[in-house]
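hey so u asked for the seq, here:
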Amino acid sequence: MTAAAVHPESRYIGGRRCPICGHHAGERRGTGARCHGYETADHAAAFCARVPAGKQTADGLHRHWLYGPCDCGAIHAPWDDAPPELRERREKSNGSARPNGSARPNGAHPPKPPKPWTVPDEHVEVFHRYEDPESSELLFEVARIKREHRDRYDGKTLPRHLIGDRWYWRAGEWAGRSDELPLYRQREAVAELLMGGTCYVCDGERDVDVIYHADNVAVCNAWGSGKFRDHHAATLANAVAEGAPSAALIVVVDQDAAGRRHAADVLRRLRAAGLPRAKIRTVKPATGKDAADHFDAGHRIEDFLDCDVDEDPRDDAGPEPERETGPTVVPLARVTPERVSWLWAGRLPAGKLSILDGDPGLGKSLLTLDLAARVSTGDRMPDGAPGIEGGAGVVLLSAEDGLGDTIRPRLESAGADLARVVAIVSMPTDDGPRPVDLPGDVHAVEQVVRDTGARLVVVDPLMAFLGGGTNANRDHDVRRALAPLAAMAERTGAALLVVRHLNKGSTGTNPLYRGGGSIGIIGAARSGLLAARDPDDSERRILAVTKSNLAAPVPALRWRIADGPTGLGIEWLGATEHTAASLMAEPDGEDRSARDEAAEWLRDALKDGPVAAGDLLKRARNDGINDRTLRRARERIGAKAAKAGFGGGWTWSM
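ran it, C-alpha cells below
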C-alpha cells in the first residue's frame, strides 16, 4: 500500500498530526518537518516519514506499531489503550494483531534483544539524565551528539538505558511513554516551586541546562516538541499551588513554528490543570531561536523578552508569514565614534578581554595582585600612567593560590584596599559547593562585578575554570567559551585579565603561538601580555606586549620579585628595549662569562664620559663582542642612551 492509495481521512493532513513525529504534510516547505505519512484503517500501525523503524515502504515511510512494543524499540502506547476491536482481534488471534486484521504468531511484535550502546564518549557533547523524581533512580539518559559527528547517527539526541553495568540503545521500557515519563530535572523544579521560586519551562534539555548554569531552575519533557502531557502540567500546577505565594512558571517560547505550537500546548495544559494565567509568564530569547542561543549571545536570564502566545493555534490557518532571513546591515555613517577606554594605557583596555602569558613560577599571579592593589586604591600604574581616580573594586578567580596564606598577604604588601577586593571561590548546589565553571557561571560572575563596582576581573589560570565540555585546543570551543566572557566585560566596562601558562614550544616561536591551548584564545583577546625572565639577569622579569589591537605597542617593563611587609611583592625597574619576540628568540650562544666580560668592557669604555654609540659598537666588534651582547651589557650595568642634540647621534654614558 502506498500513501497515494490511502483514504484521505487516514493521512496526516489538515492539521492531523503523525503520532510518531508530531508533524503533518502541511508543514512549511524547507523546514524539514513535513510528514506525508498515514495511519492504517484499523489504527494498529502508523507510517511515518521522519522517524526510522524496522520496515520501510516504497514511498520511504517507516512502519510503527501504535500499541505494544514497536520495531523502533519504543512503546508508543500500551495495549490497554488500543481500540476495543483491535484488542478483541488480538485475543482471537493468539495475542497478536496486525494491520488489516492479519495475525502473527507468538504475540504482538516481541521486542528485539537490546542493542549494546556503541557511541564513543568523545562523540557526545553531554548526557542528560532522566531520574525518578521520588527515588532519584536513573530511568534513562539522552545523549546530545556533537555537531561534527551527527551525520553518523540518526539525529542529534539519542536515548540509552542501563542494564546491570552495560548501556544499551533506546530508552528501554520508557521508550515512547510520554504519558508516564517525569519531566527532565523535575525533582529540583518541584522543590524550587514549593519554596516560592520560579521555574522555567523549556523545549529541550540543552535549554534547561543553560538556564541551570545561570543559577535558575528549569524543566522540559522528553522526546521534544509536542510531548508535554497533562500529568506534566498537573505536577507543575500542584507545586505552584502548594508553594509559597511567589511561586510561578515562565514558559520559554522557541522562535520557530514547532516551538510556538509547543509553548501554546504547554500553556493550554497548564491552564487546564487549574493554574491561573497570572502565575504563568511567557518569554522569548532576545537573540536566536531558543534559550541556548540567548545565552550563547551573552545575554542574561533577565534579558528574556515578554511575548504573547496563542493558546489555541490553528494548524490549518495557512503558512506563517515569512521571517526576514537577510543580514542586519548598519551604515557606518550612523555609528557613533567612541574612544577606547583604558584601565592601564596601552596594556589593559577597559571592557575588553586581555591575556597574560608566561611560564609557571615566574610571578604572573603576583603581578596580577600588584595590579589589583593599584586598581583598589587608585594608585598609578607601574609605568607612571594614571590609575583609577578614587579606586575601584576587583574580582579574583584563583584556582592555584590560597586566600589566607598567599593572596591576602601579597595584597597587603602591595598596599591594597582589601575591602574592595573579593574572590569568588565556588558555586552552591544541592550537593554542596562546586568549582566555578566558565562560561556557564558568567552571569553569576557578572552580578558580583556589578555589586562590587569592579573595574578589574582576574581569571587565574584560564584552564582551571573552563567547563568540562570545552576542548581548550579547539578553536571553535574556546571562542564559544570566551565570547560570553568578553561580552560580560563589554557590558560592565571591567577589564578582564585572563592568565595562561606557556606551552612547551621551542624558543624562536612567535610569542602569539606560545600560549597554552588554541590560538583562538589570544585571537579573542584585544590585548596580549607576556611575562618572561630577563635574558640579562635571571633575577629580573620583563612584562612585554605580544598583541595590541587597540593601541600602538608600548615599551616592555622590567620588574623583580621582592620581599614585602607581609609577603612577596613586586619592584618595578623601568622600561627595557626587549620585546616579546626577543624574549622568545633563539639563544645566540653567549654564556654568562661572555656577558660579564662585556659588562666590564663597557664600564671601562664609559668611565671617562659619554661615548658615541656607533664608535662603541665598532670597538666592541673589534674586541670580539657582538652587538646584542653589548646592548644587554648596557642594560645590565644601567648605562643610559641619549641623543646628542638635534641632528646628533646617540651616545651611551654611565
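The two ends are 101 Å apart (CA to CA). Residues 7 and 41 are 9 Å apart (CA to CA).
lmk if thats what u needed
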